[in-house]
Amino acid sequence: MAGSGNDRVPAPSFNPWTAAYEYAVDAWQRGVLYADVMRQRGNQYHDHMAKRAPNVLSMEYEFVLDGRELPRPVNYGLLRIKPPEGVTVDPIKRPFLVVDPRAGHGPGIGGFKPESEIGVAVRAGHPCYFATFLPQPVPTQTVEDVMKAEAHFLEEIIARHPDAEGKPVVVANCQAGWQIMMTAAVRPELFGPIIIAGAPLSYWAGWRGMNPMRYAGGLLGGSWLTALTSDLGDGKFDGAWLVQNFENLNPANTLWSKQYNLYAKVDTEADRYLSFEKWWGGHVFLNGPEIQYIVDNLFVGNRLSTAGLVTSDGIRIDLRNIRSPIVVFCSKGDNITPPPQALGWIPDLYQDDAEVLAHDQTIVYAVHESIGHLGIFVSGSVARKEHQEFTSNIDMIDVLPPGIYQAEIADKTPDTPNADLAYGKYVLSFEQRNMDDVRAIVDRKEDDDRRFAAVARISDINLGIYRSFVQPWVRALVTPQSAEWSQRLHPLRLPYELVSDRNPLIAPVAQVAEQVREHRQPVAPDNPFLLAQEMFSKLVETSLNIFQELRDSADERTFMGVYGSPLVQDLAGLGGKDGQPRRHPGVSPEHRRFMEERAAELRSLLQEGGLRVAAIRMLLYVAGAEGGLDERSFALIRKMRAEAGNAMTLQEFKDITRDQAMMMRLDSAAVLQTMPKLLEGSSPAAIREALESMKHVLEAAEPLNPAARASLAEMERIFETAARAATAKREPSAPTRPAARKPAAAKRDAAPAESATPAARPRRAATAASAKSTPQAAVKAAARKQAAPVRVRKPATAKAKPE
């Protein structure tokens, strides 16, 4: 019966032979297309490496400086990025300098695509520069020479932008991060905010069971193998070995997933694969002395994070000398630079929060939950979120008071207050943190430090033996021709060399691939053989992941067992030493004397500055109780400043903010007591207007917490009392009646102003010289009171009963 519920649509019959045939045709075609992509990769490699200065920048640029022409020549160069059509560069905005890692790969990954570190800065209207480098080093260049070249580049950028509001922002990725930090420690006056992404600075740090790369030096017996590799390369170290170390960390991706993903999606994945391989396969070289310095002093010796490095001209490289805000961006998913290695330098250098404040350092850190090492400076999603937020709020970062902050990025929602004040799709805030928060992330273990200290000692011994008994023979046997062939036959470089049109067996693949594209027959997604292929791929990937976990676990147990042995530590010379294997670098007497002089200077300025300083002091006091700062509040300050015709420069605002923050940490009670003196001489309307403006700034973000509301109420009382006093002073006094006796409360309210020094000294002029030595912060003993924001209430005697 037509239309009855018993009718059934017959299911299409499944023919296994047809399914097998369709899968076989598709698999064969994908194999041909995969081989053609490999051929294109080889051609791309040869074309790329044949260039005089190869890079993978996606934007146009012009050459500015050639590092080979400097007094101490290097293979680096400075490029100016040309803004794309429709983008206008603002001469007032501070310039950006992006520095890529020279750690095996070629330059350009920071500007690899429009959504990148360079792309974000250019679209925001900042002048943008890029530090590039050549594949081959200058024969005589050293790590110190590169530092001098970077300083020269910054001098050139500063000279080109005299009207910019602030020194250049420097963005440095991976290896470039520690290189830039070394330069900033020696030439701090050249730097604006520094953003280091995925950059290791404390090389012994790491989480047990998760970060096996830090054990490599010990398992290989130290840095003697580095010297051997350089000698086999006729004085040059092949960066392909560094790339192979990265690839060995994840055998599943290296041996299977990366290539299988291309094979399975060859119709759509080829362009993305080739663009990445252009950078990944562009291996570069380092001088033997360069890589030996890096391995001995950083990877094995770990001397950077404890101020243990001294330049050839006697300057100690101490990261505490850096005066610019430092933004550390790292990720829990990064197995090359895990958060402990990115942040470990902070507890290595500073014993407590007071020392951070005493050295006038502002440190901001952001920890991503999952992104991998390359994703930190390559991923488009990271560029659109983290790098976009850092770039759009770089001026706010520059004026943050000294201390440790964690950057928090939240999504905008319909319920976000004043969402129009936040740039883009996110809201950036800076939450105050302390040394205990950082130590919890780093999770440093003294037993592990003792093991790594033993590795460093044994490495020196093995290197000395190699140099005395083996190196002369190796150097005598190696020729330039043998070094070149060993480089060309490197396991990572060989596939690029062989699979290209230069190989007559490979060239015909292009014609076959073209025919396949014309007659492409992709298999249906539900084909059972295709599903079986996916299952097999997952089996292989899982097996390799299990192998990786077993290998890493065995490496860690071996390292812990060998270098944790009392006998090995005794042979390394550690058994007879008490205390920690790495001691805190300490503070010089000169620095302590400077802190004392700076504290005395700040106390002398407590009553100077007027209404403008009082408003900033109020802002800092309430924000300290709130425990953080929000980009919406700073956006409102920026808007007010623009409406006032930029009467105060960004540098002046920064100097006042940092000075007032130091005063609060030095003596917060005195800061509050001198507020009435600052408000003297201002009109009642001006006082109330400043109060309302600061209230708008403070309430621009989320509602204030109870402590901040109490602090705000306290400030409102101070400002309102000053406004009433100013009103009373301006009213004509009554001539017929004698002045009434003031109640005791009024006397006490006026006491802070009366107790002020009668003659205030003029404030120092804001010159370039003073900016260099500015805010070295409060005395350590006074700063210790302010490990966390301290709110000070008025003494109980400030409000007495009337007589």
From TrEMBL:
Residues 723-803 are annotated as: Disordered. SUPFAM superfamilies: alpha/beta-Hydrolases. InterPro entries: AB_hydrolase_fold (IPR029058), DUF3141 (IPR024501), PHA/PHB_synthase (IPR051321). Gene3D superfamilies: alpha/beta hydrolase. Residues 733-743, 752-790 have a biased composition (Low complexity). It holds the Pfam family DUF3141. PANTHER family: POLY(3-HYDROXYALKANOATE) POLYMERASE SUBUNIT PHAC (PTHR36837:SF2). This is 3-hydroxyalkanoate synthetase. It comes from Achromobacter insuavis.
